[in-house]
């Protein structure tokens, strides 16, 4: 099966391309890459020219988009994440592409309280411009599906971790690598995560499984873990020993308010539970790697040499 892969040079895209060799990789002009089958674009937005891109393509895995960046306006998010996605889907439908797998974000579901758990049928409540732009894209894709018959699969991943991961996980890995003491001894929160290897494997399944069409999946490894458990497993993967200091969560939240870091503290100490059970029910899919097995690959990123 020929899959058109956008975001092929990104963290998740590179892993996907390793797992599914028959990809046509979309790359931006000027990006260095070694993909044999590639399609070059200036950018992905409402005006992208996809002419001659879909020849022989059976399905699309759409990873490309603007994530959380300083200085990005709401209009920028909408132009790329919403209009760019819908332009791609509309053009694909015209050329007979069967399916698009859209990688959205768990942020579409919103922010959790202490007692909630997100499910695929939870009422969406996007909590920032980035998540809102992804949700607009989801809604637009469903309309395109109704009009054209294009099969749509929506995947909302929890935080993705793995070797050379960007963002919060990358920062956390560097912290664990350098600091012998960590402040998560009393962190008993429950959060969902997914290894990049597991997410790539799931996306291949979503692109190829006949039952995936029309479903929304909240992607996780299937087990909720605390930040203490997460950082201990990172340390084990890096071959490090850490001591978890028993700092009260209330003190950490107060420190977050004083320093203007409340959002970061909530990401570390708050809950984000998801129900991923429909993935197994619909697709028969289970994560190929445990968190411990996935963390064992962290040394591949050369963290210890930095």
Q: What can you see in these coordinates?
A:
This protein has helices at residues 11-19, 74-94, 129-148, 167-178, 196-208, 227-238, 249-259, 262-269, 277-283, 291-295; strands at 3-6, 23-28, 38-41, 59-62, 99-103, 151-157, 159-161, 181-182, 193-195, 216-219, 243-244. It has a seven-stranded parallel β-sheet with strand order 3-2-1-4-5-6-10, sandwiched between helices. It has a two-stranded parallel ribbon with strand order 7-9. Strands 8-11 form a two-stranded parallel ribbon. The mean pLDDT is 93. Helix 4 packs across helix 6 and helix 7 packs antiparallel against helix 8 (262-269). It is α/β, with parallel strands linked by helices and 306 residues long. Strand 4, helix 2 (74-94) and strand 5 form a beta-alpha-beta unit.
**Structural classification:** alpha/beta
Taking the alpha carbons of the first and last residues, their distance comes to 40 Å
* Topology as a string of helices (H) and strands (E): EHEEEHEHEEHEEHEHEHHHH
Strand order, main sheet: write it out: 3-2-1-4-5-6-10
Taking the sheet with the most strands, its summary is: 7 strands, parallel
Give the tally of β-strands.
11
Mean pLDDT level: 93
Q: What percent strand?
A: 5-15%
Helix content: 25-40%
- Form type: globular
- Our Rg estimate from Cα atoms comes to 20 Å
Enumerate how many helices there are, as a single number. 10
User: Which stretches are poorly predicted, pLDDT < 50 over at least 5 residues?
Assistant: none
């Amino acid at each position: 099966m020929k899959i058109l892969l956008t975001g092929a040079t990104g963290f998740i895209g590179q892993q996907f391309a390793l797992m599914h060799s028959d990809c046509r990789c979309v790359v931006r002009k000027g990006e260095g890459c070694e993909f044999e089958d590639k399609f070059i674009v200036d950018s992905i937005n409402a005006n992208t020219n996809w002419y001659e891109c879909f020849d022989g393509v059976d399905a699309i895995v759409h990873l490309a988009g603007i994530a959380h960046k300083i200085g990005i306006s709401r209009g920028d998010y909408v132009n790329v994440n919403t209009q760019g996605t819908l332009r791609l889907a509309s053009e694909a439908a015209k050329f007979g592409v069967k399916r698009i797998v859209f990688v959205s974000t768990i942020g579409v579901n919103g922010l959790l309280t202490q007692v909630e758990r997100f499910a695929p049928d939870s009422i969406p409540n996007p909590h920032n411009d980035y998540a809102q732009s992804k949700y607009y894209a989801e809604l637009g894709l469903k309309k395109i599906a109704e009009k054209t018959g294009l099969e749509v699969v929506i995947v909302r991943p929890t935080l993705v971790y793995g070797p050379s991961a960007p963002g919060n996980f990358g920062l956390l890995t560097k912290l664990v690598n350098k600091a012998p003491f960590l402040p998560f001894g009393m962190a008993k929160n429950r959060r969902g995560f997914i290894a990049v290897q597991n997410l790539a494997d799931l996306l291949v399944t979503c692109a190829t499984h006949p039952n995936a069409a029309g479903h929304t999946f909240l992607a996780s490894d299937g087990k909720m873990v605390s930040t203490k458990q997460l950082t201990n497993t990172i340390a084990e993967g890096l071959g490090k020993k850490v001591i978890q200091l028993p700092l009260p969560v209330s003190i950490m939240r107060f420190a977050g308010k004083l320093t203007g870091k409340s959002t970061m503290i909530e990401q570390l100490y708050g809950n984000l539970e998801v129900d991923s059970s429909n993935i197994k029910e619909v697709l028969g899919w289970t994560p190929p790697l445990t968190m411990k097995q996935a963390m064992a690959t962290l040394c591949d990123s050369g963290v210890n040499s930095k």
